[in-house]
């Protein structure tokens, strides 16, 4: 396989990893107003992702770095044309990270509640805007002959992109609720189960609309990977239904695993719908960016391939070890005992 095509799918794998891992981080953050009835329960919710949220975010840094190195034309057009949405995502991620680190620095209720609201805002905005951004990339945006996006922010807020954004928002919310059910106990766990049952129906509705709409776009474009688009869409839909059933049967591990499969299938569906383009032009197909005309030289891609072969297994092993170390449930009793010990 040509290295440019290989790296197109490697970048896709990095985004899959990011959305699966940071996706449940976003969902946990969004669940805070619904599951955090008191300070102990709010800390219980936050502590489910406390040891791993910053590690999960590194996936988007790696994905962006690989995009820059492997497809500089794609990177330049994407970041210039999508500057405002990507800036909002960056600011939201900073807001969320600061909140995790600073909410426990003072004991005042107003102080903690303020940072809790920032965690929610910093989770909702990326969950929505990542979907909007990828929806526009798949559907196509106005690109001129100089490979510049000529539309405005309102151009990006079109019906299909907003549908994809609502789908990612709900999928991440549901994924986060499954994670809380897997990692917490007591009242928080029960509330996560109940809320997941209510969120499942609108998530299924928006996901179905996104799968059908994306398939229609791929058919109109005569996408060469149309069979893969349909297959990934169907797999994602079945996994989403399976996760809802597992949650009803209180099978936390299965619910979370099938929720992860749903996100994997959804992202791959969008990736195959895009292939062989990286940014289609909605005005003139001749201005579109493809895998071939947006990629780096073979030498650059070859060096990157060797670097990935050498370093990626170690990174994956380290992340797996981290999740293994912090695999235990977060108990309300543990937090209360820690508070009592600190008071003495």
Automatic annotation (TrEMBL):
Q: What is this protein called?
A: Cytochrome d ubiquinol oxidase subunit II
The question of whether rRNA processing is a record keyword is answered with no
This protein's major location comes to: membrane
| InterPro entries for the chain | Cyt-d_oxidase_su2
Pfam families hit by this protein:
Cyt_bd_oxida_II
**Where is the protein situated, by its record's location annotation?**
Cell membrane
Asked if the record carries the keyword Ribosomal protein, the reply is no
Family the UniProt entry places it in: Belongs to the cytochrome ubiquinol oxidase subunit 2 family.
Q: What top-level branch of life does the organism fall under?
A: Bacteria
Q: Which PANTHER family match?
A: CYTOCHROME BD-I UBIQUINOL OXIDASE SUBUNIT 2, CYTOCHROME BD2 SUBUNIT II
Q: What UniProt keywords are attached to this protein's entry?
A: Cell membrane, Electron transport, Heme, Iron, Membrane, Metal-binding, Transmembrane, Transmembrane helix, Transport
Could you tell me which species this protein originates from? Microbacterium aquilitoris
Q: What is the lineage of its organism?
A: Bacteria, Bacillati, Actinomycetota, Actinomycetes, Micrococcales
For membrane topology, the record states: Multi-pass membrane protein
Q: Which residues cross the membrane?
A: 6-32, 77-98, 119-139, 159-179, 199-219, 225-248, 255-279, 299-326
């Amino acid at each position: 396989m040509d290295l440019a095509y290989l790296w197109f799918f490697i970048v896709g794998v990095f985004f899959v990893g990011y959305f699966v891992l940071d996706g449940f981080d976003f969902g946990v953050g969004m669940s805070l107003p619904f599951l955090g009835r008191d300070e102990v329960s709010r800390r219980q919710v936050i502590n489910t992702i406390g040891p791993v949220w910053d590690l999960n975010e590194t996936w988007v840094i790696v994905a962006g770095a690989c995009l820059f190195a492997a497809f500089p034309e794609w990177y330049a057009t994407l970041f210039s044309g999508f500057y405002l949405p990507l800036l909002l995502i960056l600011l939201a991620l900073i807001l969320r990270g600061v909140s995790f680190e600073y909410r426990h620095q003072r004991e005042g209720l107003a102080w903690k509640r303020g940072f809790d609201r920032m965690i929610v805002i910093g989770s909702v905005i990326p969950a929505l805007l990542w979907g909007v951004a990828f929806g526009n990339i798949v559907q196509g945006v106005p690109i001129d002959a100089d490979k510049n996006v000529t539309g405005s922010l309102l151009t990006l807020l079109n019906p299909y992109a907003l549908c994809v954004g609502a789908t990612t928002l709900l999928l991440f919310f549901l994924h986060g609720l499954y994670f809380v059910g897997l990692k917490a106990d007591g009242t928080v766990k029960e509330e996560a189960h109940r809320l997941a049952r209510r969120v499942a129906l609108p998530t299924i509705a928006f996901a179905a609309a996104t799968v059908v709409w994306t398939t229609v776009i791929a058919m109109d474009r005569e996408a060469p990977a149309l069979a893969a688009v349909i297959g990934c869409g169907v797999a994602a839909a079945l996994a989403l239904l399976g996760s809802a059933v597992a949650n009803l049967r209180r099978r936390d591990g299965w619910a979370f695993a099938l929720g992860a499969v749903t996100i994997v299938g959804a992202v791959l569906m969008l990736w195959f719908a895009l292939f062989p383009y990286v940014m289609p032009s909605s005005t003139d197909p001749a201005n579109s960016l493809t895998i071939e005309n947006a990629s780096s030289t073979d030498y650059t891609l070859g060096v990157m391939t060797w670097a990935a072969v050498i370093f990626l297994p170690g990174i994956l092993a380290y992340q797996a070890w981290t999740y293994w170390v912090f695999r235990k449930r977060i108990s309300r009793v543990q937090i209360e005992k820690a508070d009592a010990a600190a008071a003495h």
